[in-house]
From TrEMBL:
<feature type="domain" description="Co-chaperone DjlA N-terminal">
    <location>
        <begin position="33"/>
        <end position="149"/>
    </location>
</feature>
<dbReference type="InterPro" id="IPR007791">
    <property type="entry name" value="DjlA_N"/>
</dbReference>
<dbReference type="InterPro" id="IPR029024">
    <property type="entry name" value="TerB-like"/>
</dbReference>
<dbReference type="Pfam" id="PF05099">
    <property type="entry name" value="TerB"/>
</dbReference>
<protein>
    <submittedName>
        <fullName>Tellurite resistance protein B-like protein</fullName>
    </submittedName>
</protein>
Length: 158
């Protein structure tokens, strides 16, 4: 499975820009996994100095969302870091999510982004901006955005 993930993710650029109907379902699933991971990593990268607590929050969110083995999660996180480093916009990641995720799933992605931002008990303005931008691209309403933020805050306190 890890080899399959690596092979599919090695063709990331093509898969993220390909029309949704041209990908096999397994390729779409792997592309969605990577797109989700990249957006979570972007929140982590928004603040100078990577925090272990934020990295752990990214892994926890990915673990909850996808049925992957630990080594697959680690590889996904590595690929997400590399992809985030070379990315210039969020639309290539949100496009497939808008086509394949339900509104509830998109809200959960935004909530997971908030969890990453709150993991170090400090909300940076850059983190806030990334989440706001992605929420808009995912067509998450302001009310859903605020509810996701409050839910993530409550989860961090509980």
């Amino acid at each position: 499975m890890l080899r399959n993930l690596k092979d599919l993710f090695d063709n990331l650029t093509a898969s993220l820009t390909a029309p949704a109907g041209t990908q096999a379902p397994a390729e779409q699933e792997h592309t969605l996994q990577l797109a989700t991971a990249v957006l979570l990593v972007e929140v982590m990268r928004a603040e100078p100095g990577l925090q272990d607590s934020e990295r752990d929050a990214v892994l926890a969110a990915l673990r909850r969302k996808f049925a992957l083995e630990e080594d697959e999660l680690q590889r996904l996180l590595e690929l997400a870091h590399e992809t985030a480093r070379t990315s210039y916009d969020y639309q290539r990641f949100t496009r497939l999510m808008n086509e394949r995720y339900t509104q509830e799933q998109k809200i959960r992605v935004v909530e997971a982004m908030w969890e990453v931002a709150f993991a170090d008990h400090h909300l940076d303005a850059h983190e806030h901006h990334v989440i706001s931008k992605v929420a808009g691209l995912l067509h998450v309403t302001h009310g859903e955005y605020i509810a996701a933020k409050l839910h993530a805050q409550a989860a961090m306190k509980g």
